[in-house]
Every structure is written in structure tokens, then in C-alpha cells.
Amino acid sequence: MQIHDPEATSPVRHLLSAAAVRERAGRLLDLGLKGELEHFTVHLDRLGPTAEAVIETIRADYPTLDIPFHARWRHFAAGGLDRWGTLNEALPWADAAERGRASFDLAIVSVLLDAGAGPDWCYEEGRTGDTFARSEGLAVASFDMFIGGTFSGDPGAPLRADAGPLSLIDAAELARGFQVRLDNPLVGLPGRAELLNRLGHAVTAAPTVFALGDDPRPGGLFDHLVTQAAGEQIPAPAILEAILLYLGPVWPGRLDLDGIGLGDTWRHPALGEGEAGLVPFHKLSQWLTYSLIEPLEEAGISVVDLDGLTGLPEYRNGGLFIDTGVLQLREADGAGHPHEVGSTLVVEWRALTVALLDLLAQEIRQRLDLDARRFPLAKVLEGGTWATGRRLARAVRPGGAPPIAVVSDGTVF
Asked: In whole angstroms, how far apart are CA 3 and each of 6, 169, 246?
């Protein structure tokens, strides 16, 4: 598997960036405000009530407004038990780099396994007897597999993920770890296994990135980013750029440009032909970027320009805007059947979600009298939009299902 590094000025390099996600999403929002989108109308007069709904959630969950970043680490604390934090404090790490690599290994593998689980799956945790579903369940299950050495190539060192085991893991082994049965089905299981296989191959293909301080492992990206930090400081978009460049081959073949896969990038006919009509999202890559901030800061690297990333175009944030009336489907029956992730309807929904999250963040900050430095998008999401989207979904649909069903292969949502 070959790692591609396009020129900084190329269209490919632009599409592999958060700036492109924001720019293309903004263009579709502009069309929506003009009434020119095929599937959705946009109603900004509902943005204020939406902000109030999010603030209600924030004040209930974080009355002091001391909100952590939106990151995978929150899910590892499902049920009020800080699993990684407790383990992290108890272990005699040799140095900050060893801890950083392990943290990166866990976050990268768990995020890649975090696509939508479907409504019928759950995970029973042995240590507590608690049962978790959806993102929390996937997090706790992947955490248990990680500490159990599922991804390690060294029987004496379970807390690692190595290229070899990742390259070989199959759907059957993941099914055991996720407790998958006929009565406990998990959406996209083969796709999840393939992602980990491709992760192992990508890590092996780039030893100058992933093997600077150890054998090839996803956690080697920690060492690479530390070397890139100028004055012990790194911009969040630079983390995303590294993920998209060096972990880009992980994503299954979809669209490509100049022979380089574009990952979570899709077409929308209203934006034109060729490169102009491409709409990138990089949802899981950005979710991963948010999740790598804390291990870097724990190692003394300051992560800046947090709002250089975008909001996450997934069904909780997107559902928030539908359930509050900011977005309305032109055809009511559009919510009555599943849609492919590359469909024009889903591309519109995701792009509008990204652009509206920026506007909503501004509205929330204004009402809370906070600026972007004190209340970055990462806190708006965590505080926040994701939890409010889930809360409203549970109030209006059985099991809290999203307002629009999306056909998932386990690699996007």
C-alpha cells in the first residue's frame, strides 16, 4: 500500500483539508438559503430556538460551563467510570512517549471502529454488568479488546496496536469482541475488519511516520506529530492533514483524484462537474483529530486553532437541525426509507449540518457571552449539539433513531 503526498497547492491537497469541508459545505448552505437545493429547505429563524435547546443541555450537564473537548475519551467514561483515565494514572509508563503511543493506538483503533452500530446492538461490560449501545458500547467494547491485547503483537505488552495483528484481524474475531450474535447484530462488521486490515497495511507502508520510536504501530503517529510541533505547539488542522495523508489509504476505494483516494468525499451536482462538484467531509478523520488533542496536550504539546476543524456531519448533529425545524425535507416521505451515503439527499444533509454548526456555535456563544477561544467548536459539540440531537431524537422516535436512515458500511457514520 503506497502513501501519497500531493503537492500543497494541488486540488487533492485542498480536498484533504478541513478548509475544503467548510468551503464546500458553505456553498451548499448558500444554495439552500436561496431555495435551490433538491431535498432540503433551510429556516434560519429556527436557529435561535435550536441554540436554546443546546444551552438547556449544556446547563443541565455542565452547569459551570467547564466542558471537555468532544473526543473518544468521553465514551471511554460511559456510565461514569473513567476507564482509560484510571488505567493511565495507575500504569508506570516509561516516559511520555510510551504513554502517548498507547493513547494514540487506542484512540485510532477505537475511532475506526466507531461507525454507526445500528439500533439492535449492545455490549454487556463484564467489569460492571452494565449494558451500553451505539457509540458508548463501541467504545467500551473496543477498550476491552485493547486492554485484552487483541491488537497487540507482543503477548507481554497488551496495551498496544501493532501493524501485524491489525493486518490479519477478521470479522469473526471482531464479532467475538463485540459480542455479535443473531440476536445482537452489529451493522457493517466486515467493513470494520477491513478498515483495521487497511490500517495495518498503511502503518507498515510508512515506517518513517509510524516507526520512529518503536515497531510500526498507529501510535507511531504521536512521535511524528511531536517532531512537527514548532515550539511545542501544533495547529489542529495539521493533525488532520497528517491523518488524511498517512492514514488516507485506510478508507475503501471511492472517489479519487490524480490517482489519490479522497476518502469521505462525495459528489453534489449543484456544485458543478469535476473537482468543483466534490464535497469532502472526513467525519471519522476529524473525529479522530479531536480525539488526539488530549494525548498531545498531556505530553506538553499545545494544540491551537481548534476551530480550524469543522463540526462533525453525523446523524446526531444532523438530526438536531431536522428535529428543531432548521432543516426541512421537501418530500416528507424522504425519511421513510434508507438512503445511500453518497446520495444527493445525504450529501446535502451532511453539508448543511457542517455549515449550520458554525452558525449555531456563534449563536450559542453570543447567548452565553463567551468567545471562540473560551468556547471552541470542540466544546459546543460536546456540550452540546451531539447530546441535544440524541435527546430530541429519543423524545420523538422509538429508540432515538435518526430522522433519516442511512445505509452504512461501517466506514462513514
From this structure: 10, 22, 6
| All residues at 6 or more sequence positions from 398 whose CB lies less than 8 Å from its CB, including other chains | none
pTM of the predicted model, to two decimals? 0.92
263 and 285 Cβ atoms separated by less than 8 Å = yes
The answer as to whether 5 is a domain residue is: no
Residue 7's pLDDT is 61
Residue 357 confidence (pLDDT): 98
What three-state secondary structure class fits 197?
helix
pLDDT at 347: 97
Distance, CA of 292 to CA of 221 (rounded, Å): 10
* Cell 432515538, located at residue: 400
Rg (CA), the chain: 20
Asked, for residue 96, whether it belongs to a domain, the answer is: yes
- Alpha-helical (H) ranges within 10-95 are 11-15, 18-33, 47-61, 72-75, 83-90
Q: Is 192 within a domain?
A: yes
Angle at 353 between CA 348 and CA 355, to 5 degrees: 100
- Domain presence at residue 4: no
Cell of 404: 433519516
Given a contact cutoff of 8 angstroms between Cβ atoms, the answer to whether 212 and 193 are in contact is no
The total of structural domains in the chain comes to 1
Question: Which positions ≥6 away from 292 have C-beta within 8 Å?
Answer: 104, 107, 108, 221, 225, 239, 243
Whether residue 384 is preceded by a cis peptide bond, meaning omega within 30 degrees of 0, is yes
The cell for 209 is: 511516520
Distance CA 192, CA 195 (A): 5
The model's pLDDT over 111-160, given as tens digits with 9 standing for 90+, comes to: 999 877 888 999 999 989 999 998 899 999 999 999 999 999 999 999 99
Whole-number average pLDDT of the chain: 93
Strand extents, DSSP E, 72-168: 122-124, 131-133
**Which residue range forms the structural domain that includes residue 182?**
11-407
**Which of helix, strand or coil describes residue 37?**
coil
Q: What is the DSSP letter of 310?
A: -
Over residues 92-106, the mean pLDDT reads 96
